[in-house]
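pinned: reference chain
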Amino acid sequence: MRTLNYLEFEDGVRGGMVTATRQQRKALSRTDVEVVESPWRAGNPVQSLGTLFAGEGYFADYDVAHCNLVGPGSVAVARHARRNDIPLVLHAHVTREDFAESFRGSTTVAPLLEPYLRWFYSQADLVLCPSEYTRGVLQSYPVDAPIRQLSNGVDVESLRGYEQFREDTRERFDLDGLVVYAVGEVFERKGLTTFCELAKATDYDFAWFGPYDEGPQAGKATRKWVTDPPENVTFTGYMADKRAAFGAGDVYLFPAKVENQGIAVLEAMACGKPVVLRDIDVFREFFTDGEDCLMCSTFDEFEAALERLAVDPDLRERLGENARETAAAHSLDRVGEQLASIYRGLVDGDVEDARVGRVEG
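pinned: its structure tokens
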């Protein structure tokens, strides 16, 4: 079976959808599915005009089309798939809810995005999404297509050796003692203000490892905190190797307001780090307060959770060990098997098999 796994603007976009797409491809490499990354016959839409005029076709050959973004390239792929009876999978990494509070103007634009997403996702033979929470969001629009939850997974292999980065990274960013940290793009939806206000209320070093915008596209909160951070907060900017972040940090703090799953949370768990999360539906779906994480609803609860972890190394160790077990349930082997099963169901014309995602063996 030959499957298109497409992320348009792959070299220009960043964030969880890039990680998720590349993890899908890595997971599928462990199956019998052959993956094509570009839908265009000659590798890009412009050069493929030549193959079209030569009678060789504009699109590459594949048995299933799987798109991970919602732009014009994905629309073209969707139309081609529908015209040629190619099973179409659309992956919902983008919702109106998680688009808000990211960059300047995104909160204003977010409500206008919903009708487009409803139309776009409704073209699919099957919509995949990372969580039951996201599935409920899509159903509320409503999206007129079958929707199935599939974990983004976690690439444990990509994290191996994170411990060796600890001393160099802490020295590079002048971090000492218990380091509270986050990983990923810096914007308000991910709990930026809570992160910084907690830093102001404690004596620990806080570090946010990840890129941030400084230009006119940056959100108000991002500009405020990055320009004038609390004394004990470091914004590192882009990190070439994420293992440096997970090696340097001690307590993973992620007070996100909206998430579709949270790949970096799973990565922190795979490294055995104690994790502190905002108590929202999507995290309750995957994690258990007091077992593999601490969940908090108020500022005082966040502050108390950090204090508990700071003074209780046994609690940190217990949560971290349980977190490793949680992360193991999201292995790429499992993701690959489920994706391959979904594709087989669609190719065989059994939509129910694809929706259930039965795994053989």
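why pinned: Confidence is low (pLDDT under 50) at residues 357-361. DSSP finds 16 helices and twelve strands in the chain.
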